[in-house]
Amino acid sequence: MGQAKSYAGRMFEFPEIGALPRDAAKLAITKPLRDQGVDVTSAGLDRAVSSLGPTGSQLIAKGMIWSPNHGDTAFTVPLFDAFMRRIMPGDDWRE
């Protein structure tokens, strides 16, 4: 007998999607960047994820990124926090 499924049976099927092979993962990162004129070195791609923590901490300290949730990173306008502190009148907003 065939393997036909009802619409509901197909709608709730979740195929497993695994990790890309290493070369495909590198291409998925580098191709869009290169298409935009960004030069990517393989040294940066070969770093262990655990080695990126100190870099992230430095970028957070400089106000260039922030982490709204554990494992998430959002970019900010560089030095925007210092700019806001300079232009905000009064002291009632300070803690």
Task: Provide structural commentary.
This protein is mainly alpha-helical. It has 2 domains: 18-47, no CATH class; 48-88, no CATH class. The chain has helices at residues 7-11, 22-35, 42-45, 53-61, 80-87, and strands at residues 65-66, 74-75. A two-stranded antiparallel ribbon has the order 1-2. A hairpin with a 7-residue loop joins strand 1 (65-66) and strand 2 (74-75). It is extended. The chain starts with 6 loop residues before the first helix and ends in an 8-residue tail after the last helix. 0% of the residues are buried. The mean pLDDT is 75.
| Mean pLDDT over the full residue set | 75
Query: Reading side by side through the largest sheet, how are the strands ordered?
Result: 1-2
User: For this entry, what is the oligomeric state of its chains?
Assistant: single chain
Order of helix and strand elements from N to C terminus: HHHHEEH
Gyration radius, in Å: 22 Å
How much of the polypeptide forms β-strand, as a percent range?
Answer: under 5%
Total separate domains: 2
Count of DSSP E strands? 2
Query: Terminal Cα separation, in Å?
Result: 72 Å
Largest sheet: 2 strands, antiparallel
Distinct helical segment count: 5
Features:
95 residues, mainly alpha
Draw up the topology in text:
Layout: H1 7-11, H2 22-35, H3 42-45, H4 53-61, E1 65-66, E2 74-75, H5 80-87
Task: Provide a quick synopsis of the model.
The chain is mainly alpha-helical. 42% of the residues lie in helices and 4% in strands.
